[in-house]
Request: fold
Amino acid sequence: REPLIIGEEVEFFNVAVPSQLAGKTLAQSGIGAETGLVVLAVHVGNGSNGELSPNVPLPVDGEITLLGTPRQLMSFKRRYQ
Reply:
C-alpha cells in the first residue's frame, strides 16, 4: 500500500459499503491492499465499530469511514462501485 503522509491531501471519506463487498470481512475485501485507503470505522444504522479487526464483516446496508487521498478514493470507486 502507498504510504500516507498526514497533511498532504489526506481526508476522511464516508462511503456506502459497495454491494460486492457486503458480507466480506475487512481482510477479504482487500480495501487497504488494493487502494491504499485505511478503514477507520464501520457504521450500521446509528452505531459504529471503531475497534476493527481483519475479521469484521462489512454490513449490507452499512457505511465505512476511510482515510486517504482523493486519488485513492477514485481507485476505490473504480474497483468497487
Observations:
- The radius of gyration is 12 Å.
